Structures are given as structure tokens and as C-alpha cells.
Amino acid sequence: MSEVRIVATAPFADQRPGTSGLRKKVARFREPNYLENFIQSIFDSLEGFAGKTLVVGGDGRYYNDRAIQVIVRMAAANGFGRVLVGRGGILSTPAASCVVRKRGAFGAVILSASHNPGGPEGDFGVKYNTGNGGPAPEKITEAIWRQSERIERYKIIDAPDVDLAALGVTTVGAAAVEVFDPVADHAELLATLFDFEAIGRMLRGGTFRLHFDAMHAVTGPYAEEIFVRRLGAPPASVVAATPLTDFGGGHPDPNPIYAEDLMATMFGADAPDFGAASDGDGDRNMIVGRRFVVSPSDSLAVLAANAHLVPGYAKGLKGIARSMPTSRAADRVAESLGVACHETPTGWKYFGNLLDAGLATICGEESAGTGADHVREKDGLWAVLFWLNVVAVRGESVEQIVRDHWRRFGRNVYSRHDYEGIDGAAADALMQSLRNSLMTLPGQSFDVGAGQSLRVTAADDFAYTDPVDGSVTRDQGVRIFCDDDSRIVVRLSGTGTEGATLRLYLERFEADPDRQGGETQSLLAPLIALAERFVAVRERTGRNAPTVIT
Ligand code: VG1
Ligand code: CO
Fold it and tell me: Which ranges of 51-180 does DSSP label H, i.e. alpha helix?
């Protein structure tokens, strides 16, 4: 039997996980020992996995296959008894979460940089999920980082590559390595939650047309199985369905800028009825009606308000949870349902405890992530099926459903402005100066043009106390509230690999149905002007306009 080899190594100074795992350029990950160090640091931060099962898979991006071979050999060397690998190395993030739960695995290593571009010049990423199927909580990610700073050796077994193309079990050292179908378990789970009869009738009926764009990322095989094979939609309903190592050169981030093909189709002549896309690792979703983009924050609220129409949620919701920058549209729904709406820092890892404790059923983020307690990750196809289920039952268009929601609950007009790739030092200085000004803002009134003024009622840096384990997370983004119930949020991204990305989140409530139909950026213009005054993006970064507006 092959021997465990102990390899001497030295720490890398940049292995602290961000919002969702460790993300770096592929070139960095390919440096000798870089991947090995991080994987060993994960294993060294965990206890009690001897003989247990580890799930491994990724979004199919460049270096996925090589990294999997290394991780399998390291898992075996470190004493895992069984390693489950998705065929072809493919496993969407929600499917990984599903498999961990279904097979009672100890945890999962998911290889993805999610919405970041891929290819030899692109990004790569590694995240660790625990036995509940969810992203490792901060306690663990910080332990991994500390371990990475003092690592001296890693363990690996020399063994031939596992054939990832063939289903079946082989052995590496003392571990059984099982290559399994990455799609089946997840598709089966989703089928238990939604009315596949009603959705299937709609998709096969010949009048309603679905257009799902997998953006050459991981969801293609899942979408084909679910929409085409199980629900009977015409094969042409799913496009860009083959996962490519560089996502076809695209940016697998489903928003109106990067999902340009989807936008062109949904805003073109003879547009389909329903458009959707997902991201690199299949956990995000974008919903587009005919010539109508649904804001992700609205999407969360609409799904919660219509959950009673969906079999898996007909008995009611235990609660709703949203990340802090996500609009408060969901809070209004929670209030009308008589359940709590929890507000967490950005990143899915904060939802795990709430879901495990039964404090929330549905969760969402403004970055186009929605999901529920069927897994412990956001789930792109879950959201698309949920929407299709609601459309099938209500027999209304996406646009009608959203406009009706606004009339009923009011509209939380919402937008995010991203400034990507700005200078890191300038970004830090901007945040520091903003934080320094927080104490002085409340009570001040500001002229925002057109004879209007806004008064700041409160300003802080968001901190979160987990209601389940009491852990406290600070400095999660600056919030500025105004007297018309509007809000400005500013934070730096924790998923980028080059420079800094500044995210500016703008939200204003509009109760008047006659004014709800306006264009988002014009409705937010006074708030945008105010934000520029506080944040001074132009002056501090030299940028005149955001790179991405969602
Ligand atoms: C972004 C989003 C956040 C999301 C995270 C991971 O983080 O804002 O809502 O949870 O990406 O999503 P940040 O720190 O860049 O703002 V995914 O689908 O890229 O794993
Ligand atoms: Co993702």
C-alpha cells in the first residue's frame, strides 16, 4: 500500500479566507505547496474525522481537476476513510451541501471562486463546508488562517490519478474514493419541494417560454436534468450549458452587466416569458421577466410572500433572514407573516446557525443569492424553480407579480454600485475616514437638490451577535439612515483577488403606487448625491462612475 509522505513546507502570508473561502489568482494557487498548505491547514483545524467521509468537487474552472487529485491524496493521507468526488470533478455549491447532508459526510472541500472569472489568468478558490452542509463559520475559517501561518508540513500519498470520468469506487492509500453522479441527489431533493406537475405543464404547454443561461458554468448539467429531462422543457430552453474551464471567457456573475446575452434575449424582440441565469458555482440566481429585471432583494421578498403557494413551504415559514446590505423589502413580508426577519453580515456562513436552530426557513442576499433550509447554501436552481412554481400557480407574468408586490407592501427601491479594482490603500483610507465621520452625522441635514433635504437619523458600523452561539462579528459595513427611511451602506468586498472593490448600497422606500414604477437610478438620485458627499468616491478613488450597477 502506498505510504503517507510528510512534506516540509513554510507558511504563505496570504491565506486568510474572505467572505466565501480563499480566492487567489490561479498562478498563486499553482505555486509549489500553496494549495497543499491551505488544504493541510483546513485538516489541521478540524478534529474527529478519522475514517469519516469528505465530499470534494468544484465548479469546473481551470485547475479544478488538478486540485482535486491533490486533495484526494491529502485527504487519504490525513485519515479520511472515504472521499466522494463529483464525476468530472463537477459539483455545484448547493449540490455539495445537499450531498454532505444526505450522506452524513464530515465536511466538503468545494473548489470555486464563484462569480470571479476563470482560466489560466483567472481566479481559483477553495472553501470548506462543515457537516451541516454549510460554509465553515468564522471560528473555523479564522482557525484555518492561524494554522496556515504556522504550518511546517503537510501529508500526502503518492498514488496515480483517480479517473474522475468513471462512476465507481477505487482506493487511495487506506481511503475509498467514490466518483458519484453530482446531479442526481440535488435534482431529487428539489423535486420534493416544488410542484413539478404544474411547472412541467407550463413548460410543455407551448405558450410559456423559459430561457436559462448557465453561463458555461457549473449549473448546465443540473439545468438540463431538471428543466429538460424532468420537467420536459424544450432543449433550447437551456443555453451555455457546457461547463468550460474559462466560462467561455465570460464573467460568471449573473447581473445585468455580466449576463449580457441573457439581457439581450430578454429585452429583444420576441423575448421569452422567463429568463434566468446562475453563477460559476451555481449558488446565485438572476431572474428576468420579459423586459423586466427583478432586483435580488425584491426576489427574496416576493418568494417569501408567495411561499404558501409552493408545496415545500405551504405550512409557513419559521422566519426569514437577509444579509445587512440586502433591502428591507423582506422585513415587510416577515412582519405581515408574523415571523422574525434576521439581519446578518454579508456571506452565507452567517445563516447556518439560524437554519440549524429553526429560526429561519428562507434566506437571501442582495448579491442574487437565495436559498432555504433544504441545504445550507444559497441555491440558484432552487430560486428559479421557486419562481416558476409561483408563476405557474398565479398565471401571471414576472413583472405583474413584482408590481403587485410593490402595491401591497410598498417598494424598497434598491441599487448597488460597485467600484471594482480600485487601489487597496485608497479604499482603506476611504473607509477609515467614513468611519471617523460617523459620530458627527446624525442630526445633520443635507441639501440633495431639487429643493429637497435629507436628515441623517443614525449612522454606525454594523456588528452582529449570533443569536444561537453568541459570537460577535464587527466592522461589517457602514450604515447611514435618513429621515425618509432611506439607507446608504458602504463596505469593501471580501471576494476579490486584485485591488479592492467598493460596494455602495442604496435603498429608499416608496409607498405611493403612482411613483413606484419609476426608473431605479432616477428614484435614487437624491440618495446617490448624498452618498457621494459622505463617501467621496470620486475624490478618493479617481473613479467617475461605478463599474457595475445592479
Ligand atoms: C459577495 C457578495 C456576498 C456573497 C459572496 C459570495 O461578497 O456580496 O453577498 O455571499 O460574494 O458569493 P463580497 O464580500 O464580495 O461582497 V459567491 O456566489 O461569489 O460564493
Ligand atoms: Co457563487
Answer: 64-77, 93-102, 138-148
